């Protein structure tokens, strides 16, 4: 016997349920994408103008934690003397080319050092020495580099090099108290010495969710789930009624006297 769910009426209901599911899925997907669109990235700390630089001493004490909002593109200035003998090369790629960031400690009058990234030098070239005498440098404060930045050369590290620009690494190379960040100089700073300037990283961003679109996405999903659930309930009810009709007909047939002609009176 043909299933009651294959009747013309039910074929129309199946098609309607499929359309409802497709429309609700498309609506949920569309609103979900709108809720997490890339243009909803919000710059939390843009690169500051060096004209607005503040003394590094205003941002915190040496060795103490500095909030990421402070150690990301904040324009600062510092005064001191470079320890030219302590200058280090840190492996760093620039536009796909291997080379080194030239890093030297700027020692303030308090005896505290700030790691200064003077610029980039291609591999195989001799970087210029650090300037002598007391200088004032102005640049962008940066958080310590992690192991994902730069590149790690093969083999053992050479003398005069460091793995990355991070106080946790540099403290083993320099006998100074260090600030928990480093300074990146622009190419125009005299202390850069003609090195290729290394631009500060992209400004940090926070992700902003469009809650209205997200709520619409959830509503579309709920409508679709409700439509599918209603469709399933209707099918179960139709099948149950069909079974009941078939069972009732079979019972009446079994109770009828087999010797009595169909339709005969009692």
UniProtKB/TrEMBL annotation:
<comment type="similarity">
    <text>Belongs to the SURF1 family.</text>
</comment>
<feature type="transmembrane region" description="Helical">
    <location>
        <begin position="216"/>
        <end position="235"/>
    </location>
</feature>
<keyword id="KW-0472">Membrane</keyword>
<keyword id="KW-1133">Transmembrane helix</keyword>
<protein>
    <recommendedName>
        <fullName>SURF1-like protein</fullName>
    </recommendedName>
</protein>
<keyword id="KW-1003">Cell membrane</keyword>
<feature type="region of interest" description="Disordered">
    <location>
        <begin position="243"/>
        <end position="266"/>
    </location>
</feature>
<dbReference type="InterPro" id="IPR002994">
    <property type="entry name" value="Surf1/Shy1"/>
</dbReference>
<dbReference type="Pfam" id="PF02104">
    <property type="entry name" value="SURF1"/>
</dbReference>
<keyword id="KW-0812">Transmembrane</keyword>
